[in-house]
Amino acid sequence: MRWFESAVLPGLLQTEAYARAVLASGPLMADADDHVESRLRRQAAVFDRPRPPLTVFVIDEAALRRGHPDVMGPQLDHLATMAQRPNVMVHVLPLSAGLHPGQAGPFIIATTPEGGEVGYLDDQSSGRITNDVAPLWAVWDTVRSVALPRDQTIDLLRA
Hints:
Blueprint: E1 2-5, H1 16-24, H2 32-47, E2 55-60, H3 61-64, H4 69-83, E3 88-93, E4 107-111, E5 117-122, E6 127-130, H5 134-146, H6 150-158
Parallel strand pairs: 1-2, 2-3
Antiparallel strand pairs: 1-4, 4-5, 5-6
Helix pairs in contact: 1-2, 4-6
């Protein structure tokens, strides 16, 4: 799974406090508790299985800079810890990269067990699934090419 996120940290990498803060700030605020629990269950389903999948995340640095320090400190520590797992690759797209095609919004490219590919795009009102992943690959290749390598990302998260 390849996941690009521009405004918030990917749901699979969120702490409970960060997920609660993000969900409580948007249209899901009334049901934030239910959504937080669901998010945490998804994390466990992905990462706590005997053979967790390879996941590669590119996160815009702006997402790391947004949030209350009491929430972001533990969240960034958690992110650094997750980034050291052998099946989790985290790369930060630095602000110095300037304008890039990923600014159009977050997306995921997933490889299915059958070897196919499916994309997921998210926006303010809803998400949508697409089988036309070629445009997403073009954006992925661009944002991944200007993102920091894994070791520099971990150093940035720890700083």
